[in-house]
């Protein structure tokens, strides 16, 4: 199977159709129509074998994870993801692997009504680069830089499970049921698009938690030229961390990464109304502190050093 047959069989034919895709896979570029009154947001992520996933993972999970990593960036900015392009580098033409990869890719895209509009396939070490395009009402993108002093800091869900799952990759005697829950958190994350109405109504700043809460919140603080005062007891630690790594639980929640939950800020006066609206939607978010004038991450026991994943950190 040559490159063009590969694209046709695995990516073109199963792709979801959208009316705003005038033409997509098959030409030198895709042609899209952005609705009036909408801003276009674009984000790119690359996942590399041995860094972001293991070669022996099910290709379905690899594709699913790659999509969610990209879609999470859209969620963090209160954007609706619409279109995605894929640049796939493969060491060989393994049709069994490609079948599972395509199944995972299209399942994830269909979940959020995202059209695959093009990309590229090449031969080389396994890596996946995706570019996702999304829309948000004009002027409505939520950025990292908008937090105000006194704003409440929120986290959208339990943290640390993916970090604990990474530790299981080298072996563990943990019971299979708990291992399955944790590995699902790592391999099958869900982007928090369910929170778009909340972000659009309340958020002053936001980002997704990919590198660890402390590192990512510090990025938000720096962008907003503020600091954060955190209540460590309020950090929503995943219950399996408390069960299996009680001494490390808080540290994994603060610095582990790969959670793809959202961290966002809102005006303090909106806290009660926001909690009520979340309850009406059947959702939970957790207030963990407030933005302050003094730079840095402050806790009752002193300054917290932000830590998280970095590609180029020794």
Describe the protein.
The protein is an alpha+beta fold. The chain has 2 domains: 3-137, PurM-like, N-terminal domain (60s Ribosomal Protein L30, Chain: A); 144-302, Phosphoribosyl-aminoimidazole Synthetase, Chain A, domain 2. Helices cover 34% and strands 25% of the residues. It contains 10 helices and 13 strands. The N and C termini lie far apart (42 Å).
Features:
4-stranded mixed beta sheet, 10 helices, 25% strand, Phosphoribosyl-aminoimidazole Synthetase, Chain A, domain 2, 314 residues, alpha+beta, 34% helix, 60s Ribosomal Protein L30, Chain: A, single chain, 7-stranded mixed beta sheet
Poorly predicted ranges (pLDDT <50, ≥5 residues)? none
Rounded radius of gyration (Å): 20 Å
Total separate domains: 2
> Strand sequence of the main sheet, in spatial order?
8-10-7-11-9-12-13
Task: Compute the average pLDDT.
Answer: 93
Helix content: 25-40%
Give the overall silhouette.
globular
- Give the CATH architecture of the largest domain: Alpha-Beta Complex
Alpha-carbon distance between the termini? 42 Å
- Biggest β-sheet, characterized? 7 strands, mixed
Beta strand count? 13
Our estimate of the beta-strand percent is: 25-35%
* Structure annotation, total helices: 10
CATH superfamily of the largest domain: PurM-like C-terminal domain
């Amino acid at each position: 199977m040559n490159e063009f047959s590969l694209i046709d069989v695995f990516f073109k034919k199963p792709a979801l159709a959208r009316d705003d895709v005038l033409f997509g896979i098959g030409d030198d570029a895709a042609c899209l129509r952005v609705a009036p009154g909408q801003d276009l947001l674009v984000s790119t992520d690359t996942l590399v074998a041995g860094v972001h996933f293991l070669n022996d993972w099910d290709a379905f999970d690899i594709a699913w994870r790659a999509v969610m990593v990209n879609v999470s960036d859209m969620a963090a900015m209160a954007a609706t993801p619409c279109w995605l392009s894929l640049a796939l580098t493969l060491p060989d033409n393994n049709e069994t692997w490609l079948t599972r990869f395509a199944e995972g890719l299209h399942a994830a895209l269909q979940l959020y009504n995202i059209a695959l509009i093009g990309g590229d396939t090449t031969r080389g070490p396994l890596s996946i680069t995706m570019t996702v395009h999304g829309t948000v009402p004009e002027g409505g993108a939520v950025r990292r830089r908008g937090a105000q002093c006194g704003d409440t800091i929120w986290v959208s869900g339990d943290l640390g499970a993916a970090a604990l799952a990474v530790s299981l990759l080298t072996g563990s005697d943990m019971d299979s049921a708990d291992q399955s829950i944790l590995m699902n958190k790592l391999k099958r994350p869900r982007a928090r698009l369910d929170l778009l109405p909340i972000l659009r109504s309340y958020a002053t700043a936001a980002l997704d938690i990919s590198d660890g809460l402390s590192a990512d919140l510090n990025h938000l603080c720096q962008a907003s030229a503020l600091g954060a005062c955190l209540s460590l007891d309020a950090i929503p630690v995943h219950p399996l961390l408390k069960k299996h790594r009680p001494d490390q639980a808080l540290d994994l929640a603060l610095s582990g990464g790969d959670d793809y939950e959202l961290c966002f800020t809102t005006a303090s006066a909106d806290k009660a109304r926001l909690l009520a609206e979340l309850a009406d939607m059947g959702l939970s978010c957790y207030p963990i502190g407030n933005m302050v004038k003094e730079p840095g991450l402050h806790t009752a026991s002193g300054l917290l050093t932000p830590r998280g994943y970095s590609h180029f950190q020794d």
